[in-house]
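Model: You mentioned two targets. I'll fold them one after the other.
Researcher: Yes, keep them separate.
Model: Target one:
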Amino acid sequence: MEDILLSAQEVADMLKIARNTVYELIKRGELPSSKVGKQMRVHKQEVENYLSRTKNVSPSVAAIASATQDYPKTQPNIIPYPQPFIETTRGHEFIICGQDTSLDILISHLSINDDMLQIYRSYLGSYNGIYALYQGRVNVATSHLWDGDQNEYNVSYVKKMMPGIPTLIMRIGERMHGFYVKKGNPKGITGWKDLKRDDIIMVNREKGSGTRVLLDEKLRLSGIRCENIQGYTNEHKSHVAVAMAVSQGLADVALGSEAGHRKVGGVEFLPMQPECYDLIIHKADADKQPYRRILDIIGSSSFKRDLETLGGYNTSETGRIIW
């Protein structure tokens, strides 16, 4: 059994990719896996099947590998949870919810000082992440949900989605969101109203993600019906995935973060709106460990420096408690 059930590291060695890339492939459903105890295991035959499927076309591995190989440099014990809700209680497992690369940096910093802590990673989008925090399914949520009526990020959503629960929201950083288009922008896309053009096909993010909420709010305020947008129902679950769709000519435009397209060739970024990415915890947890450590890390100069090195982040308000 040990010969046929492989750990994430053994799979990474076979495919010659980073261990985080293996978790990305599992999360996307490209590499079936099983949970044995607290560890993810992949049947050796599934790895061989994956190699056979991608023998002639392997853009996803290359793109995901290049997008995830930089952080974290010291790999913590991270296990992704792709299912909509995490069936676990908040005990010895510590679950951080979110999809952004800044969380890889945060977990790396956290693991350096506490390698006994079992850190788990949920890849739920912003909306579902806050809901999971409300239900006690995760310890930490992150969000970049834009309220078009208030023209603010996250606070109004947390107030409504966590009624009666004192909450602390800390700014991780600001980043730019915009359109991914083919190099040279051959369709001449400049704004939100271009999405309803007959000659434009888009690729979308999944419901509940901050990117999807931003798009839907912009469409609502612009009076554009989603039914009139070609490709609106074509969903992918990461910035890299939608950028790849544009690069491969499967779509003319997608919405994502500035950093999300940098590892995908042939794609150009058109900035549309700065956004705020925030961390959310129960206020009652703020003085407990490891929550206190997390807040201290985000406010540290070393964390800000790593974010700036990663690129695409404004750290002027990083570490500030905004609510």
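Model: Target two:
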Amino acid sequence: MHITGILPARWGSSRFPGKPLHLIAGKPLIQHVWERCSQCSRLDDLLIATDDDRILAAAEAFGARAVMTSSEHPTGTDRIAEAIRSLPDTTHVVNIQGDEPLIDPELIDELAATMARVPELDMATAANPLDPSDPNVDDPNVVKVVTALDGRALYFSRSPLPFFRNPVDGLPVLRHKGIYAYRRSFLERFVTWPPSPLEQAESLEQLRALENGASIKVLTTTDTSPGVDTPEQAREIERLLSSL
């Protein structure tokens, strides 16, 4: 078994062009994420997959291994699928968002360990509990997930999930974190499937996996590290980093 962590990093972004190279506390955003991932003990390899020469050059300058991929990929998952073609030894992949500079290395290791423990598992991801009264529950930019009793994902949605017609003590709302681990053979099949109806309705590609019968294990985590989608959020991350 050979587990590779991959950070997809594209230049184009409707809200934040050039985001991976935006400087936060003197370093490019993607470097902060890479340094956190470098603390992991369960990854056999770590790679940045990009579509831009500037990101490639910056990654190599701070010591990362990086590979160029097509600029035509609609999702980071497609970019990762291209990147692993040059990694014949890789059996499992952890897809780490390139805009989470405070991601917990222990969470990445836990996902990798889960895939190692259950090598036939299609996918694994993570979610952190929210209080049902948290305003994020109603935010369509915050993805929610509900699970079966054994921790398998039943559904992901931008809507409040579950709908509490009746109060249930101890039942949290689970906020989905955009980190995934895949078995290589599953990932290679996944990117050949067309976008599915629920995926298109919710704009959530993980629903394509569920609609095609995949099993997604959801790990519950206390990691609430924020991502960076706007320059304003980048400034908040810089403030948080300065306080560490």
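Researcher: Noted. Anything on target two?
Model: The CA atoms of residues 6 and 47 lie 5 Å apart.
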